[in-house]
């Protein structure tokens, strides 16, 4: 007779050699013949292998359902598998079954609640979080740090209840760096930048994820200069930190590169690229895509192409980044060539909605009307992709620039979604190019209806009336603009000098070196 220890070792050895579901079934049959069909230890091993190694949740559930009295560890394994494989409904139903059918034999533990809260935020809503919260308090796990942090994150997923999250955070008996970071991330996600930064500054101890939470939050909320400043501060702290616990990782690098791309800080972007090599960070496709995007946005297309060519495993995001780089800078043929290269490489990569936005933009910049229409049809008919507002905007812009207004209006009338400001703005732009004042008036009125306080639209309409000689209408529009105190977004330009971006707005004198700038300008004018 085989001893229990020898059997355990034998079963674990067989599991290591399993590479197919049939192998697992043979092992399961072997255990059943030995009378271990209901043994929790072996059932747990089979179930975990089925979910983690084979990713076969249906058969894992089959094993689970044939157990007469599964314990908390088996429930936890199955619920964790559902939550990890984006099946929150099944996770919650199984949790409900656990609570209802086996309230004494299989009471939830602290390890199951984080997955239950995650599933609540994905499948149900705030009320379900509150209901499970009450069950946590009844079960006595309300003071457990893992449970508190997951509950905190669950409340922060709902903007209507950030107060409950903060109350929970303030009442926590043991706050660790994870709970601090969760609260900061939640504030950032909700756009409450000030609260997030105040909390970050109060942190008694920081790790890389906490720095990343603020840098990523700044970037996602459009505060790119602040993101770069914090990245520099992190580098400074890391250089004085012998333990290197605050050393930037791939997430830090990607968020910082995104900020560089949006602000046009090419020199800093190059420095970060060098930092990746100097510090031995893995140049994954994640980082490579960020580098391509940064170089593309900063106009350094040769460097973008170099990084792209050195990327060994090109994902769809890699191809899209390169296509959009060329499209953004009007290099239509290069963008199309990259797409054709992608289609010819024979990999499993298929174009998505982002790919076609890049292609349509490329066609717009190159005036390739027929090619653009072909790609639009390819997207809808060959790949079954439903056009979004961005695709319609590109197509209307393409047709408007080419002066094909009847076709452009047909596209607008055939849209399954309501036209937005981009659609009417694209049409207006085409009308101005080709002198279609009548249609320009129609588009400008649509824009004003959508945003009456945008003075830019009113000024455009007044200019159109001026070209038509309708001076009474010009005066009426200007009178309305004055009465409404309408705003006009000022033009903005920027320049990078010594790794610092200087921004200049129209009629703006807030720059600290304004007097010096105007003196130089006046001296240049006097020389002309």
Concise description?
This protein is mostly helical and 528 residues long. It has a two-stranded antiparallel sheet.
Question: Care to describe what's here?
Answer:
With 528 residues, this protein is mainly alpha-helical. The chain has helices at 4-17, 21-33, 40-52, 57-65, 72-84, 88-101, 113-123, 126-139, 145-156, 162-171, 177-189, 193-202, 208-220, 224-239, 250-263, 266-278, 285-297, 301-310, 316-328, 332-344, 353-366, 369-382, 389-401, 405-413, 421-434, 437-450, 455-468, 471-484, 514-527, and strands at residues 492-497, 500-505. Strand 1 and strand 2 form a beta hairpin. The protein is 70% helix and 2% strand. A two-stranded antiparallel ribbon has the order 1-2. It is globular. The termini are far apart.
The pLDDT mean sits at: 86
Q: Helical segment tally?
A: 29
Principal-axes shape call: globular
What percent strand? under 5%
Quantity of strands, as a count: 2
The first-to-last residue Cα distance is 104 Å
Structural classification: mainly alpha
Topology:
Blueprint: H1 4-17, H2 21-33, H3 40-52, H4 57-65, H5 72-84, H6 88-101, H7 113-123, H8 126-139, H9 145-156, H10 162-171, H11 177-189, H12 193-202, H13 208-220, H14 224-239, H15 250-263, H16 266-278, H17 285-297, H18 301-310, H19 316-328, H20 332-344, H21 353-366, H22 369-382, H23 389-401, H24 405-413, H25 421-434, H26 437-450, H27 455-468, H28 471-484, E1 492-497, E2 500-505, H29 514-527
Antiparallel strand pairs: 1-2
Helix pairs in contact: 1-3, 3-4, 3-5, 4-5, 5-6, 5-7, 6-7, 7-8, 7-9, 8-9, 9-10, 9-11, 10-11, 11-12, 11-13, 12-13, 13-14, 13-15, 14-15, 15-16, 15-17, 17-18, 17-19, 18-19, 19-20, 19-21, 20-21, 21-22, 21-23, 22-23, 23-24, 23-25, 25-26, 26-27, 27-28
């Amino acid at each position: 007779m085989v001893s229990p220890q020898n059997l355990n070792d034998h079963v674990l050895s067989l599991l290591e050699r399993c590479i197919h579901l049939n192998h697992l079934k043979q092992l399961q049959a072997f255990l059943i013949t030995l009378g271990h069909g209901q043994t929790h230890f072996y059932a747990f091993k089979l179930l975990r292998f089925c979910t983690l190694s084979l990713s076969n949740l249906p058969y894992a559930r089959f094993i689970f359902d044939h157990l007469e009295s599964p314990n908390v560890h088996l429930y936890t394994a199955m619920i964790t598998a559902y939550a990890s494989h984006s099946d929150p409904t099944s996770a919650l139903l199984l949790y409900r079954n656990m609570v209802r059918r086996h309230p004494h034999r299989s009471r939830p533990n602290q390890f199951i609640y984080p997955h239950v809260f995650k599933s609540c935020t994905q499948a149900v809503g705030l009320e379900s979080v509150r209901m499970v919260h009450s069950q946590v308090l009844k079960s006595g796990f309300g003071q457990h740090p893992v449970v508190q942090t997951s509950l905190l994150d669950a409340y922060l997923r709902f903007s209507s209840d950030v107060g409950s999250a903060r109350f929970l955070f303030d009442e926590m008996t043991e706050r660790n760096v994870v709970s601090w970071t969760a609260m900061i991330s939640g504030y950032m996600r909700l756009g409450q930048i000030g609260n997030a930064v105040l909390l970050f500054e109060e942190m008694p101890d920081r790790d890389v994820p906490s720095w990343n939470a603020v840098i990523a939050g700044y970037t996602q909320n459009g505060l790119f200069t602040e993101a770069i400043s914090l990245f520099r501060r992190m580098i400074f702290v890391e250089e004085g930190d012998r333990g290197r616990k605050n050393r930037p990782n791939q997430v830090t690098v990607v968020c910082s590169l995104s900020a560089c791309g949006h602000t046009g800080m090419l020199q800093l972007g190059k420095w970060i690229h060098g930092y990746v090599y100097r510090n031995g960070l893995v140049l994954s496709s994640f980082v490579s895509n960020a580098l391509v995007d940064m170089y593309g946005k900063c106009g350094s297309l040769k460097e973008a192409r170099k990084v792209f060519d050195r990327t060994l495993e090109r994902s769809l995001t890699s191809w899209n980044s390169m296509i959009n780089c060329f499209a953004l800078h009007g290099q239509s043929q290069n963008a199309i060539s990259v797409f054709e290269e992608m289609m010819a490489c024979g990999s499993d990569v298929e174009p998505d909605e982002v790919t076609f936005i890049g292609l349509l933009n490329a066609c717009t910049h190159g005036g390739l009307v027929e090619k653009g229409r072909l790609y639009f049809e390819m997207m809808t008919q060959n790949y079954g992709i439903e056009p979004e507002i961005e695709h319609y905007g590109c197509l209307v812009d393409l047709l408007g620039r080419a002066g094909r207004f009847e076709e452009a209006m047909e596209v607008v009338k055939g849209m399954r979604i309501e036209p937005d400001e981009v659609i009417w703005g694209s049409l207006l732009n085409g009308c101005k190019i080709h002198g279609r004042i009548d249609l320009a008036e129609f588009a400008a009125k649509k824009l004003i209806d959508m945003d009456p306080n945008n003075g830019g639209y009113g000024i455009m309409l007044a200019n159109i009336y001026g070209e038509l000689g309708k001076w009474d209408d010009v005066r009426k529009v200007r009178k309305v603009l004055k009465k409404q105190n309408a705003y006009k977004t000022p033009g903005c330009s920027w320049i990078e000098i010594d790794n610092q971006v200087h921004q200049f707005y129209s009629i703006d004198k807030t720059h600290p070196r304004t007097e010096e700038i105007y003196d130089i300008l006046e001296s240049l004018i006097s020389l002309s």
